[in-house]
Amino acid sequence: MVKFSSGLKAVISTVAICTVIAPVSMAQDATNNEAMYSELLQAIADQKISIAQKQVFIARQEAELASLEEQLAGLEDVKAAVPPMVEKMTAAIGDEISADFPFQLEERMARLGQLQDMVGNPEAKLVEKLRKALSVYKIEVNYGQSLESYQGNHPITPTIRQGNDRYKKDVNDEFEGDLELDKNGLPIEVFDGNYLRYGRTAFVYLNEDGSDPLRYDLDYEPTAEELEKCQGNRERCKWRKIPNSKAVEIRRAIRVSRGEIAPTVVAAPVSPTP
Fold it and tell me: Which of 89, 122, 143 is the last residue of a domain?
């Protein structure tokens, strides 16, 4: 039996302990390294995903920028096309008024004049010019879809008369505007009759007493004799007499346009024949 000295026994014990501890420590290090490696791989994967997302975002932004640049280029083309378009619209409105029935001429010509002034103003904004042109154009278009009447003097033999309005407005009551009887009366213009416009189908006149119904004929060309009677006024000569039997229907249409009776179908006198 081999006997070891106490010193040798201590050395052997130490080596044995180290031999046992070393594998355990190495295993722990390997586990830690694997964890760190996994974390590193996860971090790399997360970074790749983040980069990919940013690349997609950048690509979308570049596409949007390209689209905006394209739209801006198109907008410049549109802006360049608007001024001549507005000028053409203004000219077309003027031509339409000149060739149309002569209803509300003062009002329409004043509106056209305002548009022409704005279009010719270099300081006016382009959008304001376009908005004004579209507004006037819409008003003119709507004339063809409405029934309208208004007072006026005879188109061939107008008279200018004045009468007395027995009522006056209370000047001290600005908001309510109560009417008070005034025995003295105020001078007012008395009109001969009423004009009636059936859209753009017909334009007629009727005296206040229901006499002398007239129709404006856009296509009529007056003779030299007629022009002489009209004092050279070609527009005045285009007012043609229509049968008195039309007066009842015209008066009814006038009342419809004023809301005095319920809306109903009305016949427009489109020709001078009965």
Answer: 143
